[in-house]
C-alpha cells in the first residue's frame, strides 16, 4: 500500500501579477468584481465603482494597482473646483 495522495487541488489559477493585492483590495472594499464588466475600482472622490482601467482612472505609478484613487471625472472636478473656489463659487 504505497499509493501517493495527489489530492491537492489548486484549481484554476490566473497568473496575474498582484493577484493577492487585488484579492485583499476587494476584501477592503476598494475593488469589486462584477459581471460582465470585470474588475471595478472604488473612486474615493464620488464613492462609485468604475472599471479599473485607464479609461476611467489615470495611471499612477506609485499605486500598487497602477491607478489613481480618484476617477478621471473627480480628478478634473477637483482641479476645476480649486479654480472655482478662488472665484467664490461654492464647492459641491
Ligand atoms: Zn469619482
Architecture overview:
The chain has helices at residues 19-28, 72-86, and strands at residues 31-34, 38-42, 49-51, 57-59, 67-71. With 92 residues, it is of the alpha+beta class. Strands 1-2-3 form a three-stranded antiparallel β-sheet. Strand 1 (31-34) and strand 2 (38-42) form a beta hairpin. 10% of the residues are buried.
List keywords for this structure.
3-stranded antiparallel sheet; 22% strand; 5 strands; 2 helices; 27% helix; alpha+beta; 92 residues; binds zinc ion; two-stranded antiparallel ribbon
In summary, what is this structure?
The protein is an alpha+beta fold. The chain has one domain.
Sheet/helix structural class: alpha+beta
**Hetero ligands:** zinc ion
Q: Can you write the helix and strand succession as a string? A: HEEEEEH
Outline type: elongated
Mean pLDDT: 78
Tally of individual helices? 2
Largest sheet: 3 strands, antiparallel
**Low-pLDDT stretches:** none
Let me know the number of strands: 5
Main sheet: strand order: 1-2-3
Which bin fits the share of residues in helices?
Answer: 25-40%
Radius of gyration using CA atoms only: 20 Å
* Count of distinct structural domains: 1
Distance between the termini: 74 Å
Percentage beta strand: 15-25%
Amino acid at each position: 500500500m504505497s499509493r501517493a495522495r495527489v489530492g491537492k487541488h489548486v484549481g484554476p489559477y490566473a497568473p496575474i501579477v498582484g493577484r493577492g493585492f487585488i484579492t485583499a483590495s476587494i476584501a477592503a472594499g476598494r475593488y469589486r468584481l462584477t459581471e460582465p464588466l470585470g474588475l471595478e475600482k472604488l473612486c474615493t472622490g464620488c464613492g462609485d465603482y468604475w472599471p479599473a482601467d485607464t479609461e476611467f482612472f489615470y495611471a499612477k505609478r506609485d499605486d500598487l494597482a497602477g491607478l489613481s484613487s480618484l476617477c478621471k471625472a473627480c480628478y478634473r472636478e477637483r482641479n476645476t473646483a480649486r479654480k472655482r473656489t478662488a472665484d467664490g463659487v461654492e464647492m459641491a
